[in-house]
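Long-time lurker. I teach an intro course on protein structure, and each term I like to show students one example going from raw sequence to a predicted 3D structure in token notation. This year I'd like something fresh instead of my usual example. Would anyone be willing to generate the tokens for the chain below so I can use it in lecture? Attribution to the forum is fine with me.
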Amino acid sequence: MKWLAVVLAFSLSGCGLLAKREPAAPAAPKGGYYKDDGPGDTPPRDLHTVPDAVPRDEPLHRFANRPYQVFGRDYLPLAAPAPFRQRGTASWYGRRFHGGKTSSGELYDMYAMSAAHPTLPIPSYARVTHVASGRSVVVRINDRGPFHSERAIDLSYAAAFKLGFAELGSALVDIESVLPREPALAAASPPAAEAGGVYLQLGAFSVRESAENFRVRMVRELAWLSDAIHVVAGGALFRVHLGPYRSQDQARPVAERIRAELNMVPLFVVR
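-- Reply from a regular --
Happy to contribute to a lecture. Here you go:
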């Protein structure tokens, strides 16, 4: 993730200031994040269950939607929510900005479903789809950025986590505005598992840190499944699960491929 921080000048209309950010640290190696940023030391349990933002009618911010200039480039935000589509690279920002003010004046919550975009109205809503996996989330736009030619949108850590690229740092995504009267469900999302969905258990640990470290290893070694691997807390154990699948028959080919690639036998678990 390469987060270019900005000090925004007065907007072209001569009124209003957008949020001020600290200068960015040098870029981390590909797939990582800044040494002074990241997901936080104690992220909430079961972060993958955080609900998507729910579109609703809201008044536009008085100042955050005015024309502005950053690094010599002019930006003209949309004057009102309207149909919008864009494909580009998404990154995310974490604890370094957690609790700081966004362009809307709200405090940034890295565990909420929010995002920063250079021109979408503040506030408004967008469906973001991870092109590689087809997984989608709905986020609320409440901040400006990223101001980098190689980035289209900056997501909260929670949104990047749910899309499955938090460990990678960035990913190619499709961005589509969601109007309040439109259904917020993502058409491209994987089908929801029925009650009692089947999961593949890859490991179980008594210490959450060990489970998280193992999950990171699995994300690296099973990149084709990275968006579906997560840690589940239950009782005295932290389990690394993969799924959900509708049935054991659907999960069995995946289990067999994992056994062939990693020489490990996943357990079938019904939740």
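Some talking points for your students: Helices lie at 157-163, 208-221, 248-262. The chain has three helices and twelve strands.
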